[in-house]
Amino acid sequence: MSFASDVRGELARQSVTDACCARSELTAALLCGGGIAWRGRGRYAASITAGEAPTVRRYFAMLKQFYGIIGQIRTLSGDALNNQTRYQLAVADEDAAKLLEALGLLDEAGLFGLRAVPAEETVRFACCKKSFVRAAFLMCGAVSHPDRGYHIEIAAPSEALADFIARQLQYFEINVKNTCRKSKYVVYLKRAEDISDMLSLLGASGAMLAFENVRVKKEVSNRVNRQMNCDNSNINRAVSAAEAQIRDIRFIDSEIGLDKLPRSLRDMAIARHNNPEMPLAELGEQLDPPLGKSGVNARLRRLTELAAKLRSGEDVDL
User: Quick one: pLDDT band at residue 82, thresholds 50, 70, 90?
Assistant: First the structure.
């Protein structure tokens, strides 16, 4: 199973005990799944179609418990669905209009007598807002496995419904973004922290913990890699600097001889030449008296300047 399937499976197992939350979920399931059809003269058909059986069974139980409606579960497949199996919960025509009225989706002023988005009272409470987004994700949501990247989205069938979903998440200070893709209006998140918050909000605590586990491992691995790259870069710079210093020391020796140098520079030149890979701090300990890292660096810089003057033919004052 994919990570997205695991998330939907966990959400489908969430219990609903309040009628207000059941109303909110069923409203989202019908609107986000495009499951309402107008048959004319005030008659409607209603159905909920999903890619996983637990989602459909969830709403079958919800309809029966809170509205006394027993739907019919069907299995759909065929070329039109790319040979993928989908599951549909169909509501009898005589119950459809009653259900839509109970959910507050009938509106004489709306197209075909239906509301494009729910009434605000449908999501009056925080629990109802969570339930609405949970159903929206179950019907048309997707989430990437954290190994591949951070992305979660809900692809709503209309811009108005996408904006409505976004407002419910923004109520919980989850800053979603909207875009339009292939005639779908997508509400999405890409920040790992926001995705984790959304999974936790909807009740997918197990998926959230799995997500965080992968995220922490990736961050630790990236941090280690950055540190290793930094260390390697520092080592390469130190090696290059030491090689240049030794070339300068040999050039000075060939031009004027190290014995012509002041003792401080002569000792430094000999110590570096004999210890080409030694770090500056350890190199200073080879001197008598010992010298700190900054002192070593200063003397090596003087040797470099002396070699530069000799190469350019300038007079040097020792």
Answer: low
